[in-house]
Amino acid sequence: MSETQTAPLAVIVLAAGQGTRMRSRLPKVLHPLAGRPLVGHVLDTAAALSPVRIVVVVRHEREQVARAVADLLPDAVVVDQDDVPGTGRAVELGLDGLGDFAGDVLVLSGDVPLLEPVTLEALIATHRDRSASVTLLSAVLAEPAGYGRVLRDAAGDVERIVEQKDATDHEAAVDEINAGVYVFTTDALRRHLPEVGQANAQGEKYLTDVVGIARRAGERIAVGIAPDPAAALGVNDRVQLSEAARLLNARTVRRWQRAGVSILDPATTWIDVDATFEPDVTVLPNTQILGATTIAAGATIGPDTSLTDCEVGADAVVRRSDATLAVIGARANVGPFAYLRAGAILADDAKAGTFVEVKNSTIGEGSKVPHLSYIGDTTIGRGVNLGAGAITANYDDIAKHRTEIGDEVHSGSHNVFVAPVRIGAGAKTGAGAVIRKDVPAGALALSVAPQRNVEGWVENNRPGTAAADAAARARSAQETSDGTQRQDG
Fold it and tell me: Which residue among 31, 192, 371, 401 is the active-site one?
């Protein structure tokens, strides 16, 4: 095997552009796509190639982008682009960031998120097999407007790349576009980048000019054609961002279907790239599985459900619900219309039912909060059943306090537990109780005031209303009935 074929690899990622067509305060490369910023997908792909170094060139919103790169890939080297505009200058500075590196340099764009490692591995192999100075990735598009065109000679060899704004009508009619992905030898870059000028429609130092310069110098130029043209396209505006999201989501859904996950309606199911599933999970329509959510075997999620950074146990069911940073145990049952906030933990076989909100609370094994309840800052033991309308009042306008409910507690409907309060194991509470004090184990807690009826209140205080008229008719009918009964008696 030749020295060229075994050359080490470095990657330069271009992330300096402003991305004005996004019309956003957020730098283009930081716009989210399937749970990661655009540049995060590019960095993941670059890292999968096991290069010896990765350099990221930044400029617009420098601190924000550099901080994101450091979070995403701490080993990456961040290099600042200066006032000289253009991709050629960016690579020139990125090359400086590689120091004395000698080998092959893969150049990627921070706004081209859908390229897969296998495509780039093939491009690198082509570069090395052909002993090329420059190898570029191209794609054939039915509508190539907006992209640089790959111009070939009569023999089919690449002569140069022309940018859209510099192209003649004849050149603009070419349907083979430059994808902005290249492999260079470091020698070719160091020799030819200083020759690149700025005499073009945009006054920029184009990296694409290196192709023509190397060709005129008699060096070999190779091309790899992207097997999936859509995956090679960049994201320049929000329309293209949504299209990239659709393509990536379709790819992600297919991958999980082939891994044993039943996804009934791929068109309405959205799955972030960091979410994971075990086999035999069922995902019903209109469902989003976001962030680093993990779902164990046999669980059923949806329809109309959104899970973000959640953990779902085996055979659990989550229907028409929203959950973030929640843990849902094996065989647990959530929804419909439940809301699990950060810190919600449902143990195995637990239930958070219809219109139940849970926040920073644990619902113990086999315990149930069936409906119409708010559970905040609460620990619930095993085998508990809370009646409809249960509220743990955790906030006193200054601080939040915890409620503790022991094993096998059964509460009546419409209970309010005013924290801090502790309900002992096996205790019961009556309907409508407001629990302000600790309840001993096995006790019955009641807060019942005697019912008092004020006769005639509506007629005296709301005269002329429909309610007063109805009350008068009912009173008259009752008096007639009572009189008839006395006569019969």
Answer: 371
